[in-house]
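Exercise 7. Given the encoded structure of a 241-residue chain, write a plausible sequence.
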């Protein structure tokens, strides 16, 4: 496997915090990370390419091309945001990618890793709840004060792997997951997780544009979703894996 990093600059920050925002369930982390980058004026300082990324190029309406990529952004002089349009396609690639990112931020003095994501549910409350998990009891206690509960079960992908590998490197880690149906990009869940993350990191972020996007997405979903009474009743055992 090959994992290449090209630096555009070398930002200076004292003990920066790594914040993960790669695509996953409901694109929650991805949407939240991009909003944070835009609101905090993040500067892209590194481009990451991996042979375990998907093997295609995406075209835009002008005929231009975009390829699978991960990027690192410096934000607010204390955050390094991992953003991208893909995760690695296999276990080996995921380990290689996450280890390389952690090596880079450790060289910068990083001691804390924060990951985000979606917590898939079949039904949602009116307001998505946010759950947490952490690599040590002290950090978990701090995170629980801001959340509705703790994550039960597995945390897949970069959101979980960065915490586990980071702990091996001596870094502390915490994960925040917002409830989502996972059927479409969910700016509402992204907004809820950002409220918690910004409070945890003591950073002010304007969420007004994200809230507007959430209302538009919810209106579209309501128009596409069949009324409850028109849905066929689920048979016994149906939908159980």
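Solution.
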């Amino acid at each position: 496997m090959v994992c290449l990093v090209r630096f555009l600059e070398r930002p200076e920050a004292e003990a920066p915090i790594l914040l993960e925002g790669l695509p996953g369930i409901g694109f929650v982390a991805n949407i939240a990370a991009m909003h944070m980058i835009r609101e905090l004026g993040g500067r892209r300082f590194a481009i990451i390419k991996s042979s375990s990324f998907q093997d295609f190029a995406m075209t835009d309406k002008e005929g231009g091309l975009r390829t699978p990529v991960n990027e690192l952004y410096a934000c607010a002089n204390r955050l390094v945001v991992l953003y991208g349009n893909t995760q690695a396609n296999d276990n080996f690639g995921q380990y290689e990618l996450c280890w390389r990112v952690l090596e880079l931020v450790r060289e910068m003095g990083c001691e804390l890793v924060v990951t985000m994501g979606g917590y898939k549910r079949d039904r949602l409350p009116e307001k998505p709840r946010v759950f947490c998990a952490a690599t040590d009891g002290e950090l978990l206690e701090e995170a629980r004060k801001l959340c509705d509960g703790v994550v039960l079960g597995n945390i897949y992908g970069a959101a979980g792997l960065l915490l586990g590998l980071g702990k091996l490197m001596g870094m502390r880690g915490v994960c925040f997951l917002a409830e989502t149906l996972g059927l479409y990009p969910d700016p509402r869940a992204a907004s809820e997780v950002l409220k918690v993350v910004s409070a945890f990191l003591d950073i002010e972020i304007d969420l007004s544009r994200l809230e507007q996007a959430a209302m538009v997405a919810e209106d579209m979903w309501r128009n596409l979703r069949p009324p409850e009474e028109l849905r066929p009743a689920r048979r016994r055992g149906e939908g159980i894996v």
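Remark. The CA atoms of residues 57 and 79 lie 29 Å apart. Students should compare their own answers with the one above.
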